[in-house]
Specification:
The chain is mainly α. The chain folds into two domains: 1-108, 3 Solenoid (Pectate Lyase C-like), CATH 2.160.20; 111-147, no CATH class. 24% of the residues lie in helices and 0% in strands. The chain contains four helices and no strands. α3 packs across α4. The longest helix is centred in the C-terminal third of the chain and has 15 residues, at 110-124. The chain is elongated, with a radius of gyration of 16 Å. The N and C termini lie far apart (45 Å).
Amino acid sequence: MNEEQLKKKYHLKSLVMANLSRADLSEADLSEADLSGADLSEANLSGADLSKANLSWANLFGANLSRADLTKANLSEANLSEADLTGADIDFSSWPLWCGTAHSNIIVDKKLAAQLRYHAIIVTQNFLPATNREKNFIKKHFHKYDQVEKLK
């Protein structure tokens, strides 16, 4: 379902602040959609194309984002508590960095965990070098390891 079909189905002029809680949007084409402030809690977005989508301030609590394409998506201030991001692609997206994100039971796979860990280490390695265990984990699971700056 593309953005126009969604607008027709839900009789929306805009998806900003839309109530799509528990909606089945699996495999939907929502690339470049403005979903800022939308309620997508417990929505099924598995396999959805959300590339370049604006999800700032969106409520994604408990949403199924498995295998979703979130490339270059704006996730600033989004609520990802209990969201399933297994197999999701978050390359070049903005990840919400606030204390609630760290304690919100977000479900990630090893690929995503390695990607997030790599980025945290790369900006702090001059003060807190990565352990060999961390380096090995990242090297094994980070899908872009061969394309990025190596860890010290």
